[in-house]
Every structure is written in C-alpha cells, then in structure tokens.
Write a structure and sequence with these properties.
By secondary structure, the chain is α/β, with parallel strands linked by helices. The chain has nine helices and 17 strands. The radius of gyration is 20 Å and the shape is globular. One of its GO terms (molecular function) is nucleotide binding.
C-alpha cells in the first residue's frame, strides 16, 4: 500500500469557514490517500486550538515553519486572496506540492508569477476550481461528447451571486471591496466559467462590461454602511474555440425568480441546467434535455456510477473530486487536476473586465 500524502493547511479552523466546510469532509472521504498532519494559522495559538480540536500531530508557529517541515508533502492554502501570493510562493520555494483556493492570485500578474515559479520547481501545483469536477458537469461533458445536442451553437447563462446584494455581515464585508480580489467577478462568475469550459471547451474571446448599481452595502451586524466598489452586475459575451457563441449575466444578491439558468443550444437538441445559486462550484444542479425528435425537455438523471466513492454533500463532493486528481498527479507524476497554468487562462479571461 502506498504511503499517505501528508497535508498541511495554512488557514484552517476546526468548525467554521470554507476549509472546515469543504476540505475536511472531502479529505476524510479520501483517507486512503491523504492524512492531515499539521496547520499554521494567523497565530500560533489559533494553530494550537485547531490541532487540538482535530487531533493533528503538528501545530506550526508560522507558515514558513510548516512549508519547511519534512512532515508535509502537500501545502493547502485556504486564506483570503490578498495573502495567496506570499504563502503560495513560500510553499513553492520550499519545494512542496501546493493546492491553493481560487482565485490563485489577486489579479493576472500574481497568477502568472506563481505559475512560472511552479513550473520552475516542477511540483504539482493546483487550484480549487471545483466546478470542473462536479458530477453534473462531468455528465454534461459526456452528453456533449456523445453528440446529444449535435454541434453546439450557443451557450447562455444567468446567475445570482448571493453576496453582493444590499446587505452583508462584517465577516463578509471585504467581498464588496474590489481591491481584495474576492468579488462576484472572481468568485462565482469565474468558478462557473471554469465549469462551462470543461463542458464546452476553451473560451477564446470574451468581452463585456461591469455594472455598479449599488454604491454602499449595509453591514447588518455592525449597524453601518460601507462603500460597495465591486461590481454587482456582470455582462459578458464571447466565443468558444469551437465557434459557439457565449453570453452570461451575473447579478448581485439573490433573485425571487431564477438564480442559475444555463442553456446549451445545438444543431440536434438542447440542454437546460438550473440551480439554486449562481456559485456553480457548489450549486445543486438539475439537468433537462431534448434531442432528436423529442417533443420537449425531459429530466436527465446523472448515472449512479458518477457518484461512486464521493461524499453526499455537493460542496464536499466537488472538492473531493479535485483532491482525487491531486492524489493521482502526485503519485503518477501526471497533470490532471486544475493547474496554475489553467488558473492563468481563467485569470486572463477576467482581466478583460479590469478590477472587478
């Protein structure tokens, strides 16, 4: 039996935030491949609390200590975007494999520098665009490949960002500041673009504009208004490498009507994908289709085997899909998981819109 890949987290709380919600159950479902052994947080006391709560053998005094440890094979970075560049650079320069949450950097230039460094070091360096490993996306990819809709003519999408509406909490208020790199453009819109490209191929041209309808956001638990500089409207259009047309509209907040609606139109049929939220990376997606002589759309069920050995929760399941590819890449020296080079391509699409 192969030895387990030893994981060290930079930014892990035992019972809150994304790492605990998504990464812990994902890795728990892959316990034959991975073992979480250590953590470094913003303070040593915080790392000690997490290590004690999760029964981890190592609490590191700093990220620098973690990445230099012989006990760590894979460094997972799950902190806020402005810190990605420094921490990922530390891990790469220490010769560690790295998995970084999306966005990879605060803008295209940081992503390019990190991708170049990863290539120089020759390590497995991956990014968390987990809609690409969604079982529904994999099923859609198969339907397109098998010719269900014939030649794809167009793809159109509407999504709601959930955040970036009129109200927020103090913890999430940073999302409304475009300088943080964590906006509706870089999070739900970009995650969903990654999924669309998995199904329909690379987007080779993109254009559009950003809208700023709201100027302030109400921070309800602090009873204050703060500036809202991130876009709350995204209008995009473009073309896939196949020549198929692409259009999308993302809007801040949630709609009382439709929060995720994606249609793929082809020469032989159509697919319609709906969901509960515009974050394609953790939306519950439902698929309908019509092909050939069908009179109308019919429910299409993802085959049961697509779910084999994956968590029941959609959030953990999609993240586990990324980790399965990472394990294969580390063990077999392949490059199947979403890479830093893939991240640069996605950042390049976003760069057309400027700072979102």
């Amino acid at each position: 039996m192969q030895s387990k890949i030893k994981v060290g987290f930079i930014g892990l709380n035992p019972d809150s935030h994304w790492a605990a919600t998504a990464h812990l159950p994902a890795l728990s479902s892959l316990s034959d491949d991975f073992e979480i052994v250590g953590v470094a947080n913003s303070s040593y006391a915080s790392a000690q609390r997490t290590a004690k709560a999760l029964e981890l053998p190592f609490a590191f005094q700093s990220p620098a200590e973690l990445v230099c440890s012989d006990e760590i094979d894979l460094v997972v970075v799950t902190v806020k975007v402005p810190h990605h560049f420094e921490l990922v650079s530390l891990a790469l320069n220490a010769g560690k494999h790295v998995h970084c949450e999306w966005p990879l950097g605060n803008g295209l230039e940081e992503a390019k520098k990190l991708a170049a460094l990863a290539a120089e070091k020759g390590v497995v360096a991956t990014v968390g665009t987990q809609m690409r490993t969604s079982v529904e996306v994999k099923f859609l990819q198969k339907l397109i490949k098998d010719g269900y809709v014939g030649d794809v003519l167009s793809s159109s999408l509407i999504g709601s960002g959930a955040n970036w509406g009129g109200e927020t909490s103090e913890e999430l208020a940073y999302l409304y500041d475009k300088t943080t790199g964590a906006t509706m453009l870089t999070i739900p819109f970009a995650h969903t673009l990654a999924g669309l490209q998995t199904v329909l191929g690379e987007i080779v041209s993109i254009g559009g504009q950003l809208g700023h309808r709201r100027k302030t956001v109400r921070v309800t638990d602090a009873d204050k208004e703060v500036p809202f500089t991130a876009a709350d409207q995204i209008l995009a259009y473009g073309q896939f490498a196949s020549g198929a047309a692409f259009s999308a509209h993302y809007r801040g907040g949630m709609s009382k009507a439709t929060n995720f609606f994606w249609e793929i139109n082809g020469t032989r049929g159509d697919l319609q994908i709906t969901g509960n939220i515009g974050h394609g990376q953790f939306a519950n997606l439902n698929i309908k289709g019509a092909t050939g002589d069908d009179d109308g759309l019919q429910e299409l069920t993802v085959p049961a085997e697509f779910y084999n050995d994956l968590p029941d929760s959609v959030i953990a399941r999609n993240v586990a899909g990324i980790y399965k590819l990472i394990a294969s890449d580390i063990r077999r020296q392949t490059r199947s998981a979403p890479s830093f080079a893939d991240a640069v391509q996605l950042h390049s699409l976003l760069d057309v819109f400027g700072q979102g």
